[in-house]
Amino acid sequence: MQTLVVILLGVVGVVFADHHVTDYGECDELTRYKVKTQWNRAYSHGHDREDFAEAVWRAVFNIVPEARSIFKRVGGEDTGSGEFHAHALRVLAGYDIAITLLDQPEALKAALDHLHKQHEERKIPDHYFDAFRTALGHVLPAQVGRCFDKEAWRACFDVIAKGIRGH
Amino acid sequence: MFRLLVLTALVAFCAAKIGDGRDHCCSAQDRHIVQEQWNSIWHDTESSKVKVGFARLILLKLVALAPETKELFKGVDIEHPEGGAFSAHCMRIVSALDMIINMLDDPEALEAALEHLADQHKDRAGIKKEHFKKFGEILAGGLPRVLDDYNSLSWKSCFKGLFSQLAGHLSA
């Protein structure tokens, strides 16, 4: 009986480990480096960064126009306003933190927990996260050119989105 | 002699204007210099270690010089500065600095961002204006040690305004 329990626990353990691999497997160490490097280039500086941020948010609102209402308090009606720029850059800064920490698992976990808390009370539907991912998928290639690795981004974005959503 | 007078008058004018965060002392040229010098260190992919490490040194120095601030970082586990929670916090601080420096050219957005950050600090009891001043001093001492090019006048003129605005919602 005891052996059976041990074996069973072992099997469960393997299944869980497997599950973990299929969830995060694609965003492995090398992929993380690639995403980090490409992000650095895309994120850029100064006005370029503001343009990048605005482009991402315009794409998001194109995909899910109703999401605009969440951003009323930060000037969401006008993506060109200073107020909304500040917000758009704040969000990208949060994303920057997560990507930059992709190679420091412990700190990444803490950063994602923090972002999770900030997002929890806002009740953001899952498909808004998908829209954000799609938006990035459109704008990033314009920033990094043909070197943009869609699969790598998708895999690592999912790791980050999962952390922020909490599921 | 006349030039000296003009200079003195200018300095006085600057001193009077400091506080609104975008006075003419932090000129377009100053902002440009600050952005260029700051951005020069973060190009490397390994920058996460550099960023976290840099902020960690600054915050630990702050805590060493103003021990009462240690309590303020309890929530981010300052007891274990190498740990995940504190590292993530360091990253947040560098990221906020990075954000406002890269916004220097857009006064409207900068204003909104600084207001938001000032609010976030207002909610934390125990943070005082003098802590920001100290933080600014430590930063000004640390930056020239990591930046090959560091124009202290430009940095000083821009950061005075930035930090006074960051601390703008604090009562003490």
Automatic annotation (TrEMBL), chain A:
GO molecular function annotations of the record: heme binding; iron ion binding; oxygen binding; oxygen carrier activity
Record bears the keyword Protein transport: no
One protein family per Pfam: Globin
Disulfide bonds: 27-156
GO cellular-component term (any): extracellular region
PROSITE patterns (alphabetical): GLOBIN
Sequence ranges assigned to domain Globin in this UniProt record: 26-167
Binding residue positions for heme b: 119
Keyword Iron part of the UniProt annotation: yes
Signal peptide boundaries: 1-17
InterPro entries: Erythrocruorin, Globin, Globin-like_sf, Globin/Proto, Haemoglobin_extracell, Mb-like_M
Highest taxon in the source lineage: Eukaryota
Matches recorded under SUPFAM superfamilies: Globin-like
Entry keywords, A to Z: Disulfide bond, Heme, Iron, Metal-binding, Oxygen transport, Signal, Transport
Family as reported in the entry's similarity comment: Belongs to the globin family.
Protein name stated in the entry: Extracellular globin
Organism: Propappus volki
From TrEMBL, chain B:
GO molecular function, one term: iron ion binding
Pfam families: Globin
A GO cellular component entry from the record: extracellular region
Residues binding heme b: 121
Protein origin, superkingdom: Eukaryota
Annotated signal peptide: 1-16
PROSITE patterns, per the entry: GLOBIN (PS01033)
Disulphides: 26-158
Keywords: Disulfide bond, Heme, Iron, Metal-binding, Oxygen transport, Signal, Transport
Keyword Disulfide bond among UniProt keywords: yes
Domain Globin: 25-171
InterPro entries listed in its UniProt record: Globin, Globin-like_sf, Globin/Proto, Haemoglobin_extracell, Mb-like_M
Protein family: Belongs to the globin family.
Protein name per its UniProtKB record: Extracellular globin
Species of the source: Propappus volki
